[in-house]
Amino acid sequence: MEIGIIGAGTVGTVLAQTFARGENQIKLSRHSGAASLAPRRAEFATNVTFVEVAEALQQPMVIIAVPFEQAPAVLRQVADYQQRLVVDVTNQFTADFKKIKTAPLTGSEVIAAAATNARVIKAFNTLPPEFMTGQVNGDGRRVLFYAGDDVAAKKEFAVLVRPLNFRPVNLGKLRHGGSVMQVGGGLGNTHFVQIEE
Ligand SMILES: NC(=O)c1ccc[n+]([C@@H]2O[C@H](COP(=O)([O-])OP(=O)(O)OC[C@H]3O[C@@H](n4cnc5c(N)ncnc54)[C@H](OP(=O)(O)O)[C@@H]3O)[C@@H](O)[C@H]2O)c1
Q1: Distance CA 102, CA 66 (A)
Q2: The model scores a pTM over 0.90
Q3: Which residues on neighbouring strands pair with residue 5, listed in sequence order?
Q4: Which CATH superfamily is domain 2-194 in?
Q5: Residue of 5, 6, 11, 86 to test ligand 1 pocket, by largest number of atoms within 8 Å of CB
Q6: Whose CA is nearest to atom 6 of ligand 1?
Q7: How many CB atoms lie within 10 A of CB 139?
Q8: What's the CA gap between 197 and 189, in Å, rounded?
């Protein structure tokens, strides 16, 4: 799958490396521009290319890996996502780690409101970056909680991450699943391994 990643910080970087292990074409972008990533070429496999944010936002699946406060404005650069997948990995923190309240909406519902006509999945935000690789010591799969309002989109997402050694666990819609996945919801910083299928 062609995957655009917005943000090449801690999370964007590891997710580019993770999805590059599958049959995917990764278009990685950052605010500072594609050229600024050139010195980091050796960190990524050849199926990761560096593009501008506008191009990454046009891919069939878009991973939004920027700070929560920036995410809505970034996503609004596209007028109509035409049912493409947008994966929200954000946590609701300010730059100085104060919690951002969005009630009664969940953070992912705020993201979904900014990504017009996208099928939004909340995922990865509960994992520390080092566990976003899917790899585990020994046997088993890394449990990956996810939520979303579109059932077909969630199936597509699960099919994409299973070969990367994740065990996707569907927590329901962005309202309910999103609320337990987001900051303060109880699942933060969880990194379960499932041994048996
Ligand atoms: N780090 C964690 O432990 C962790 C775990 C789970 C979820 N998360 C969530 O994942 C997201 C990313 O976190 P991070 O730790 O990777 O942050 P980070 O290292 O600070 O990287 C943020 C990235 O976002 C880019 N960015 C910021 N504003 C942008 C804009 N307007 N347009 C395009 N790109 C923009 C930055 O571009 P430049 O590089 O050009 O500045 C940078 O590459 C956050 O929402 C965070 O809450 C983080």
Answers
A1: 17
A2: yes
A3: 28, 63
A4: NAD(P)-binding Rossmann-like Domain (3.40.50.720)
A5: 11
A6: 125
A7: 9
A8: 22
3-class SS of residue 143: strand
Record the tokens describing residue 6, joined without a space. Answer: 């917005």
Distance CA 20, CA 48 (A): 7
Domain limits, the chain: 2-194
Which of 18, 27, 31 is the pocket-test mutation for ligand 1 (most atoms within 8 Å of CB)? 31
Say which residue the tokens 């890996």 belong to: 65
Six-digit token pair at 19? 């999805």
**Nearest residue to 151 (alpha-carbon basis) of 162, 141, 159, 161:** 159
For 46-57, b/e burial (b = at least 16 CB within 10 A) is eebbbbebeebb
Q: Running DSSP on this structure, what letter comes out for residue 51?
A: -
Per-residue pLDDT of the chain (197 residues; tens, 9 = 90+): 999 999 999 999 999 999 999 999 999 999 999 999 999 999 999 999 999 999 999 999 999 999 999 999 999 999 999 999 999 999 999 999 999 999 999 999 999 999 999 999 999 999 999 999 999 988 999 999 999 999 999 999 999 999 999 999 999 999 999 999 998 898 877 778 887 76
